[in-house]
Amino acid sequence: MVTQPDAGLTPGVATRPAVTAWTFPRGAASVALMARFAAEHGVPMEDVLHGSGITPAAATDPGTQIDAHQELAVVRNLVRRLGHRQALGIEVGRRYRLSTFGIFGFACLSSQTLRDVISFALRYWDLSFAFAIPVVEITDGRLRLELRDDDVPEDVRRFAVERDIAAIFTVLRELLTEPVGLLSQRFRFPAPPEGELAAYRDVLGVRPEFGARDNVGYLDGVLLDRPLPKGRPTDRRRVRGGVPRAGCAQACPHRVVPAGAGPSAAARRARGGNRRGHGSGGPRPAHQRAYPAPAPRRGRHQLS
Questions:
Q1: What are phi and psi of 192, to 5 degrees?
Q2: How far apart (Å, rounded) are the C-alpha atoms in residues 206 and 202?
Q3: Selection from 116, 144, 104, 117 nearest residue 24 by Cα
Q4: Max intra-chain CA distance, the chain
Q5: Potential cystine with 65: which of 32, 96, 220, 266 (Cβ 3.0-4.6 Å)?
Q6: How many CB atoms within 10 Å of residue 282?
Q7: Structure pTM?
Q8: When comparing pLDDT for 165 and 296, which is higher?
Q9: Nearest to 162 by CA among 217, 89, 79
Q10: In whole angstroms, how far apart are CA 133 and each of 17, 125, 145, 215?
Q11: pLDDT tens for residues 90-141?
């Protein structure tokens, strides 16, 4: 049985996000990160954004909202130009930080334990940039994390899984502020050349198994209820225009928009033709642009 995250993490019961596909709208921070990575490796931003409908200005504006297929187009360009790097997704994924995810990332900092973080993340997975869909289960004292990639286009599937697992684990280490390694990890895709394995070990803490039937990693279940460190400088910052850290979690439900707000609106914003307004629907006042604007998401869930 697979349950919704509202049921909590119950031993022996698999839990998946409230969303079941990667097609939810998202912010442009992930596109900006990938564009910077490409530029560092000699690929101009214009080439990475080609065919996506995202302008360079929109890609670097934290208030931009895009359709998932637009980010997919950027991923395809990145893979096309830099796909010779076998661990490309791992390299890119390790660049993600809590701050990359905006208010969603800062909300995770208000959680008391890793169990709380996981439950929260599953509930608001449509505030992420992921393509793979996670299914989490506690079994035999271990946390089992499966990344399901069946709906991800085959030409970018490996990159998507590598990027998503690297981003998840990098953020996990940031939350725990200590070296943490997976107990094991396996992937469906073939093994890279031996020389590329170091990147996997650096990020995941283990040498993965390749050519497996699924993408599954195991983490020591003891970490689930260990209190997260408090009092770090990052925690004390006031973010998003003065919203305290603890208020970020309460703000997340207001980032969700009705399903009727189609991705075409997000695409128009990315092209610069229709920016999300403030109050009356006009552009945000200049003094507010210093802070990333809340990016609407599809969804029905609310914090209880």
A1: -80, 175
A2: 8
A3: 104
A4: 57
A5: 266
A6: 10
A7: 0.79
A8: 165
A9: 89
A10: 7, 9, 10, 11
A11: 999 999 999 999 888 888 888 889 999 999 999 999 999 999 999 999 999 9
Given the DSSP bridges, would you call strands 184-186 and 65-66 parallel, antiparallel or unpaired? unpaired
Cα–Cα distance, 206 to 135 (Å, whole number): 21
Helix axes 263-270, 68-82, angle to 10 degrees: 60
Pairwise CA distance, residues 246 & 241, whole Å:
14
Phi then psi dihedrals of residue 216, to 5 deg: -135, 135
The neighbouring-strand residues paired with 297 are 256
Q: What is the pLDDT of residues 151-206, one digit of tens each?
A: 999 999 999 999 999 999 999 989 887 778 899 999 999 999 998 899 999 999 99
List 65's β-bridge partners, or say none.
Answer: 27
* The amino acid at 126: D
Task: Look at strands 297-298 and 256-257 and give their pairing.
Answer: parallel
For the chain, the residue count is 304
Q: HEC states along the chain?
A: CEECHHHCCCCCCEECCCCCCCCCCEECHHHHHHHHHHHHCCCCHHHHHCCCCCCHHHHCCCCCEECHHHHHHHHHHHHHHHCCCCCHHHHHHCCCCHHHHCHHHHHHCCCCEHHHHHHHHHHCHHHCCCCCEEEEEEECCEEEEEEECCCCCHHHHHHHHHHHHHHHHHHHHHHHCCCCCCCEEECCCCCCCHHHHHHHHHHHCCCCECCCCCCEEEEEHHHHHCECCCCCHHHHCCECCCECHHHHHHHHHHHEECCCCCHHHHHHHHCCCCCCCCCCCCCCCHHHCCCCCCCCEECCCCCC
Record the tokens describing residue 41, joined without a space: 């490796």
Rank 100-104, 218-222, 262-266 by mean pLDDT and report only the highest. Answer: 218-222
